[in-house]
Amino acid sequence: MIKFKNVTKVYEDGTEAIKGINLTIPKGKLVALIGPSGCGKTTTMKMINKLISPSSGTILINGKDTSQTDEVELRRNIGYVIQRIGLLPHMTIEENISLIPRLKGWKKEQYEGRVDELLNLVGLEPKVYRKRYPLELSGGQQQRVGVIRALAAEPPIILMDEPFSALDPISREQLQDELKSIQNTIHKTIVFVTHDIDEALKIADEIAVMRDGEIEQIATPSELLSQPANEFVRAFIGEDRLNARQTQMQVIDMMEDNTNYVHYEESEYTLIPYDATVQEAARVLLETGKPYLMVIKDGKKTGSVTARGILRAVASEGKKEARSV
Ligand code: ADP
Ligand code: MG
């Protein structure tokens, strides 16, 4: 757990970048810091691994005051990913990923296995990529390496500062999905800076909305959408998105009108909560390749949805939009 207590930062030129924030980042959660450019996201993040020191207040990691912690030791236990990853150009992909494990004294067999495991995790065939140099990879591939490099030594905390913002929209979506699925297995404490509300809504467990050195609201994605704390947050989320969410169709609206679902084999379906949206349902169907989604309400199976049902729903959502234009 990371805790900020009345933390401020005034830069030497007098800029009051952080004006007294209190923030708790629970263990194992992904918390997004979001807000307009210059609101203090990067400053907040860099105070966690002591790249910047606070002017007043305390930052605690697992109850321990970071001002009392050795910064080299601290940084070895905190993964860090930035927008332009800065893989070391003269080192191979394997050497880049294994850098921190080697610094920590891991044995060769140990870190070699880890490199392969991580490359596989983001869909880069180890045989092909291990010995390549960063410039022999696309931007999206380099960023994947940046992400797994931060995971390599299994740090309990990972800081990510707009890690995907230099990527094209498709690579960006893919990496968001990959990060989400990785996080579902590793459950690290992740602080993720972004200025993209869609990205935050998609990947975060909790979102802290910042403005001008202060935190305006901390909430889960659905709370943020349903109860924005003030006009600033509302405007930042965007009126369109708030409205869209309210009218979005849920899987329960798309359930097939049949009773056969009780006989489906477990291998034929994936469970989905009744209030998942069409888009979420479509994503799950694509990811799993299974023919059905089993809709769960109050912990019980209530019906099923087929890929065709989803397509039909997506088509009718499209029509609704077309009509409203
Ligand atoms: P964000 O990451 O949200 O864009 P930053 O944390 O980088 O915001 O910056 C917050 C504020 O502090 C901005 O006004 C920025 O200009 C200022 N700032 C950032 N770094 C420095 C610095 N080294 N010296 C002086 N001012 C700085
Ligand atoms: Mg920044």
From TrEMBL:
The keyword Lipid metabolism does not apply. PROSITE patterns: ABC_TRANSPORTER_1, ABC_TRANSPORTER_2. GO terms for molecular function: ABC-type quaternary ammonium compound transporting activity; ATP binding; ATP hydrolysis activity. GO terms for biological process: amino acid transport; glycine betaine transport. Its EC number is 7.6.2.9. Pfam families: ABC_tran (PF00005). SMART domains: AAA. GO terms for cellular component: plasma membrane. It comes from the Bacteria. It is found in: Cell inner membrane. It catalyses: a quaternary ammonium(out) + ATP + H2O = a quaternary ammonium(in) + ADP + phosphate + H(+). Keywords: ATP-binding, CBS domain, Cell inner membrane, Cell membrane, Membrane, Nucleotide-binding, Repeat, Transport. Its main location: membrane. Residues 2-237 form the ABC transporter domain. The keyword Nucleotide-binding applies. CDD domains: ABC_OpuCA_Osmoprotection (cd03295). It is a peripheral membrane protein. Belongs to the ABC transporter superfamily. PANTHER family: OSMOPROTECTANT IMPORT ATP-BINDING PROTEIN OSMV (PTHR43117:SF4). The complex is probably composed of two ATP-binding proteins, two transmembrane proteins and a solute-binding protein. The complex is composed of two ATP-binding proteins (OpuCA), two transmembrane proteins (OpuCB and OpuCD) and a solute-binding protein (OpuCC). This is Quaternary amine transport ATP-binding protein. It comes from Rossellomorea aquimaris.
